[in-house]
# Entry
Amino acid sequence: MAAILFKWFVFLVASIFSVFSSVMMVTRRNPVHSALWLVCTFISIAVLYFLLNATFVAATQVMVYAGAIMMLFLFVIMLIHLEREVEPLRRISVAKLIAIVLTLLLFVEIIVGLSLAKISEVRPSVPIQGDARSIGTLLYGKYLFPFEIASILLLIGIVGAIVLAKRRKE
# Structure
């Protein structure tokens, strides 16, 4: 009983921290601070994966996303010098007001949809486990094309950032 309560406590702390760090990541004006909050989000998501007994996915989350991808993001931020001075707060423009209203409507829609949805047990066609063999079989078998597209998109983003940085220096 104590183990179950501990897992629930860890789940609540990790999920609340995940939402908090995600909001902090989106609302920061300094891109370096935003990237550091994104690392916190990645680590809290890894804790949630670990609670789901997906230890391989949790370790991959920390090594690949919190490690390699975030180093890449920070490198690109430093390369194109995005850490400008923070501008003072101005009046809320019409575009910002429309964005705030649309965001609030989206959150209300999500809450209403979740409250009205019937929660049913969905069984995947392939039994999903957290070990390396089942993930590798799915990733390099059924989901090979989306995996390759994601890697190409990351490469395009890196090349685009380098091109933008070279234009600024010239």
Notes: The chain has six helices and no strands. The helical segments are 2-27, 31-51, 55-79, 94-116, 132-142, 144-169. The radius of gyration is 20 Å.
